Amino acid sequence: MHPSHPPLPAGIVGDGIHDDTDGLQALLDTRAPHVRFPLPSAFFMISKTLRIHSGQTLETARSVVIRLKAGAGQILLTNADPENGDENITVTGGIWDMDNLNQPPADREYENTDKKYTPERYMGVLMRFNNVKNLTLRSLTLKDPESYGVHLGNLRQFTIEDITFDYNLQRKNMDGIHVHGPSRWGRIANLKGTTNDDLVALNADDGGAWEMSRGPIEDVMVDGLMAENGWTAVRLLSAGSPIRRIQLQNIFGTYRYNVVAFTNFKIRPDEPSTFEDISIQNVFCAKSGFDLEFNPAEPGWQGHAPLWIESRAKVGSLTVHNYHRTENLWAAMNFVIEQGASVDSLQLSNLSLINRTPGPIDLLTNYGRIGRLRILNLFMQSERGTPKGEIVSNTGCIEDQG
What is the pLDDT of residues 46-87, one digit of tens each? Predict the structure, then answer.
């Protein structure tokens, strides 16, 4: 052992073979304000969920691996007291590896059913934090969850930043950061990697066994997303509870489905799907055809548009500024407002749409209702002799267009 490194605490071997769960949990159970998983070990194996307490910072070197034991079927890390609530929790560093190919498959019968969330149900989530005030997750690598990377809800004052998704894409529903309401005052920044579902999901409501909580999501900034062959960069979902004052910015990459989606998932068809004061800016995107069948010259399904507002969504003020799509792959629709959806005020500014596909692409396709529409500083170019798309293709209602 290097002379500068102290001996490993009791119950910790750190060779990736022996089970270090009890020893690592003992470090957390000291309730020390700062816990560091010990060096020189670089590989810890755990078989049960680690629980971090209020007032604790768990620090791990960025290269240290914490891997779930084969067949364990557990969350790797959660907060200790979700029932009463925790506060002031920080987790920084580490490669958190669920090793999904060696875990039991998650119960996916919860989809579109009346099953309810229970914390004991194994759902393939890598990390979960519920009912936390002042939560920080920083400089983590999340590797191969069975389903979600991080499942969150009931948050007040949260920061999630510098996260790398190292996913093998061998499971469906491999979300990145999944936030339920009620949650407010948050910043999610600098996420990198390809997921097999939403990179960021802000779901005020969700339904079924996933819905650990529901309520408004308010005052959240998402800043800096980078994915190649991503699924959707940001999904906003409201089915009864509003999503308000959301700023989405600095989104880069290629996406199979959407850059930003306003959805309701039809989980509560009689309840409102409400979005208020949403800002999207600094987007540089194109379509990905990864694992999809498509005709390069055809627009395809409306839900493949980089900007998509699903039927029943009611959007108040929406601004899109500095949006740029250079499309080489396929003529998927660009910005779609579905029939039955509405936007009270829509402002689009500093936009470019460069089309190098065999089919035309319209900037905005409206089947729903727009109260007030303003488009400023637009550049559209169609190459390969393809007819230029329309600025606005409207079969719905636009009450005031300037």
Answer: 999 999 999 999 999 999 999 999 999 999 999 999 999 999
pLDDT in tens, 125-138: 999 999 999 999 99
Find the radius of gyration of the CA atoms of the chain: 22
**Sign of the torsion formed by the C-alpha atoms of 54, 57, 62 and 65:** negative
Cα(105)–Cα(5) distance, rounded to whole angstroms? 39
Confidence class of residue 1 from pLDDT cuts 50, 70 and 90? very low
pLDDT higher than threshold 80 for residue 41:
no
326 closest CA partner among 349, 354, 360, 291: 354
Of 112, 107, 105, the closest CA to residue 170 belongs to 105
Give residue for tokens 């000291």: 30
User: Which residues neighbour 206 within 8 Å (Cβ) at sequence distance 6 or greater?
Assistant: 180, 214, 237, 239, 265, 267
Q: What is the pLDDT of residues 219-273, one digit of tens each?
A: 999 999 999 999 999 999 999 999 999 999 999 999 999 999 999 988 888 899 9
Q: Which residues contact 212 (CB under 8 A, 6 or more apart)?
A: 117, 119, 128, 130, 151, 153, 154, 180
Q: Where are the domains of the chain?
A: 25-292
In CATH, what number does 25-292 get? Answer: 2.160.20.10
CB atoms within 10 A of CB 39: 15
Q: Give yes or no for a contact between 195 and 167, defined as CB atoms under 8 angstroms apart.
A: yes
Instruction: Pick 395 or 3 by higher pLDDT.
Output: 395
Element of type H or E holding 233: strand 232-237
DSSP helix, strand, coil percent of the chain (3-state; round to 5): 5, 50, 45
The position carrying tokens 């488009």 is 375
8 Å CB contact between 105 and 71: no
